[in-house]
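Continuing from the previous page...

OK, I double-checked the sequence for Altered inheritance of mitochondria protein 6 against my notes and this is the correct one:
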Amino acid sequence: MALTTRRRALTTLGATLAGAFALPGSQAWAGTPHRGRRPLWNAHAHNDYEHPRPLSDALDHRFGSVEADIFLVGDQLLIGHDASELDPTRTLESLYLDPLAARVRANHGSVYRGWRRPLQLLIDIKTEGSSTYLELDRHLRRFPNLFTRYAHGRVHPAPLTAVISGDRAARIPMEAQQERLAFYDGRLTDLGSTAPASFISLISDNWTQVFTWSGDGAFPDAERQKLRGITAAAHARGRQVRFWATPDAAGPARDALWAELLGAGVDYLNTDDLAGLETFLDAHATA
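Thanks. Re-ran it with the corrected sequence; updated structure tokens here:
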């Protein structure tokens, strides 16, 4: 199976297989012809809320995943990178949930019109994980038809898939739920976990803590094999892979590292440079 076909199959949510996310073959949620340029499903907008137009900039650049950091303040989920910059008007609803719901309505049930594949919303919890997740769960349930749902062993796809990252304590209440509107972002320590992809849908980790190569010179063969082993192990369990802290300054080193990530089957390329990653992925798609 070609690399791009395999990656597309692994990242498309459809009917479940043995209680996990579906692999290839879901007709209801497969991509359909698009009037414009195809979405860039590999593109992840790191700290998306720091862009001049949160969410809108990422969608204009056709990104397949966006990241929002949340703080629990009272019963509100405020967006920001640290507590000192919080603004009570910048909530998860105002910046993400409400505009995404409006966009899905306008596009007849999808984030990108003509493409029935879910957009990933990675929600990074910055306050205590258990209490913040429980409040987040209440907020997500205000949009029951917007989010991919896990219920009693089955995954039901929807226009958005929420994945919970950040404080690890969120895992406790999530695992206790028989029904939820979110999935868990694991770490490399979870790579061999018996938890199904219907719970740990994504494996993310810090590139600099796992690899020494930053894009300059040749990629050490041992590290290339290690990277490919990670993606193969994750994909074998129906999970996707992302690394943060990859080089993000424009130049040959970043392009070389991005090319290796694509070649190894990494599902999401992490960036703050939306236009730069869009240009890179378009060039590689053409090539």
